[in-house]
Design goal:
With 187 residues, this protein is of the alpha/beta class. Helices cover 43% and strands 17% of the residues. The chain is built from eight helices and seven strands; from the N terminus they run E-H-E-H-E-H-E-H-H-E-H-E-E-H-H. Strands 1, 2, 3, 4, 5, 6 and 7 form a seven-stranded mixed sheet that branches. The relative contact order is 0.16. About 7% of the residues have low confidence.
Amino acid sequence: MATYVDTLSKNAVVEDQLKEEQYIIISGTNRADSKSYKVSQYYQHVLESKKISTSLVTLENLDLSNRSEQYVQMELEILIPAKKFIFICPEYNGSIPGVLKTLLDLSDYKKVWWGKKALLTGISSGRSGNVRGMEHLTTILHYLKVNVHPDKLPISSIDKLLNGVEIISDPDTISAINVQTDEFIKF
């Protein structure tokens, strides 16, 4: 079972790089064994292969009913130092999960989000890849003064794409993720 943050080990070279641009991947749901978490892990793998060290934040097992001690600790240690965020956002009722909105609402937004950068990937079991949810999230992030990368990747039919495995194997999706992450590294 995942904790609220899974961190890859960092070597000295990567630590120097992270002082300028630390990458945080946020799996945008609190559901156990979610497709969002599996896609987030794939993004973490892709970025690690590009020599970018990341932290993966999952909302599973994170108390977001208030600004709990656990939340404040995560905000101070993980969210505030970060410069770049990657949101893996599943479609819930044509938008984003309420728990993701709550994460944004509870934050000390001027310290956590202002002036930082974000990359969005939407996932759904349907055809749209959560396009509407990514647009909603973009609007929220713009309000919080976050610079959102224009290459928002909708991943459709996630159930078929993962097909019971833990990693994405579709060549077109792999290519799209590589292009998207390369652009975000330069952003």
